[in-house]
Structure formats: C-alpha cells, structure tokens
Amino acid sequence: MKVNIGISEEQRKSIAQGLAVLLADTYTLYLKTHNYHWNVTGPMFQTLHTLFEAQYTELAVAVDDIAERIRALGEFAPGSYKEYAKLTSIKEAEGIPSAEEMIKDLVKGHEAIAKTGRSIVPTADEASDEVTLDLLTQRMTVHEKTAWMLRSLVA
User: Fold this and answer.
1) Would you state the pLDDT for residue 1?
2) 54 in helix, strand or coil?
3) Digit-coded pLDDT (tens) for 121-143
4) What's domain 9-154's superfamily in CATH?
5) Is the distance from CB of 87 to CB of 67 less than 8 angstroms?
6) % of the chain with per-residue pLDDT over 70
7) Taking the domains of the chain in order of start, what are their residue ranges?
C-alpha cells in the first residue's frame, strides 16, 4: 500500500537516505565497539570490557530503531556489510589498537554519528517529520554523552 503519513514521497526518500547513512554509521560503530570489547587489554581491561559491552548493546538497539524508522517512511533499510561500507563515514580499525587508542577511536565514531544525525535534521524539520526529529535528538544525545564520557577516560 501507498504510504500516506503527511510527508511527501520525495521528502520521505530524502529522509530515509540520510537515515541509511546513520544506520551504516551506527552498525559500523557497533561492530568496532564489539571488537574492542573482545580484544581490549591492559590495566583498564575490566572497566573497558564492561563499558564497551554496555555501549555495543545500546548500539544494537539503535540499529533496529533506525532501520524501523526507514521502513515506516516506506523505504527499504540497507542491511549488508557491502551497503554499510559504501554509506558509512566511520573507518574500520586496522589491527588491535591499545586500550587508549580504542577509546580515542570510539570518541571519533560517536562524534561522527552525532554529526551524521545533525545533518539530517534540516530535511526532517522541513518535512515536519517530528518522529524522525525525535529519533535524531535521542541518538545525538546518546552519542554526544558517550563521546564526553570516553574523552574523560583519556583526559
């Protein structure tokens, strides 16, 4: 059936394209965070292992929320590594960095996602898409707070 939610098809497609990038960024950061959870070593092991687990768990829920919003807008959500690699602004880690480098890398990832979310706001705002705006506000809040907390570990 045709989607009739008060947002034009063109606007829905544009918003969904932005959300596809947000989804790719979020999934890529999820994978990176999970990798760091498994492979962190050093004196902060227990703290970081636990922290990274909480973060990747939150990101897994976010992936679902973002993909479901894309579907509610009437578009298909990307769902493969190949598609994510084309869309994401987050670089994959090479090798196993030190614990401090992991933290710094995750800060960059969370900041990148906050920027991606912010870039979608004007399009969603113009379409009066309050649902997407709410999702974006929630995501930016989480990523900005997480980046701050991670930065605090490496002062």
Assistant:
1) 85
2) helix
3) 999 999 999 999 999 999 999 99
4) Ferritin, core subunit, four-helix bundle (1.20.1260.10)
5) no
6) 100
7) 9-154
Asked if 11 contacts 127 with a C-beta cutoff of 8 angstroms, the reply is yes
- The token pair that represents 110 in the structure block: 């969370």
Long-range contact set of residues 129-132: C-beta below 8 Å, sequence gap at least 24? 129/7, 129/11, 129/15, 131/69, 131/72, 132/15, 132/19, 132/69, 132/73
Residues in the chain, how many?
155
Tokens, residue 13? 């497609």
- DSSP class of residue 5 equals S
Closest CA to 63 of 52, 47, 77: 77
Alpha carbon dihedral 131, 135, 136, 141, in 10-degree steps, equals: 140
* C-alpha to C-alpha distance for 140 and 153, rounded to whole angstroms: 20
Query: pLDDT tens, 98-109?
Result: 999 999 999 999
Q: Per the structure block, which two tokens stand in for 153?
A: 């570990």
Q: Taking each helix axis from N to C terminus, what angle separates 9-39 and 45-72, rounded to the nearest 10 degrees?
A: 160
